[in-house]
Design brief:
Shape: globular
Structural class: alpha/beta
Helix content: 25-40%
Number of helices: 3
Number of strands: 8
Distance between the termini: 8 Å
Radius of gyration: 16 Å
Largest sheet: 6 strands, mixed
Order of helices and strands: EEHEEEEHEEH
Strand content: 25-35%
Amino acid sequence: RCSFLATSNELTMFINVFVAEEKFRRNVRNAVKKYWNHNSRFNIKLKFENQQSDNTLNIKFSDAKLSHVRSSKPFDIVISSSLKNQKDLLEATIAHELGHSLGIPDCYLEYFNESGKVITYFELEQDNLMCAVKPTNTVKIEKYINGLQKFRCVI
């Protein structure tokens, strides 16, 4: 659900969230505050739910090596358990994956290097969290706000 104030061109999104491990709610709150709510034109308001549903953003941890959003279930965010003890990187990753749940694609290129058996990334914008998951980056809301309003909000 969204609220758009035309006079000031401000967009607020209201998101119901279920976090499988309740103790990580603070990290989700911090991720939204630091990476998404830094722009006066855009704001996300979270409401934490006690159970998962089709109407909630569902965040859970997994032994998967890479955090991701399932393409078949865009409101299911899977976070790699290896990030649990890395607060800054955990919160940056939650914010990045939230961007995917909102319909924002990656802006980096990646490929699997057969010889080294590693994934190689080419970052297209060094300071945009959707291009490079680094705790020092932010989401460049001004690039995405019109699309969020048009495609993710029923106003």
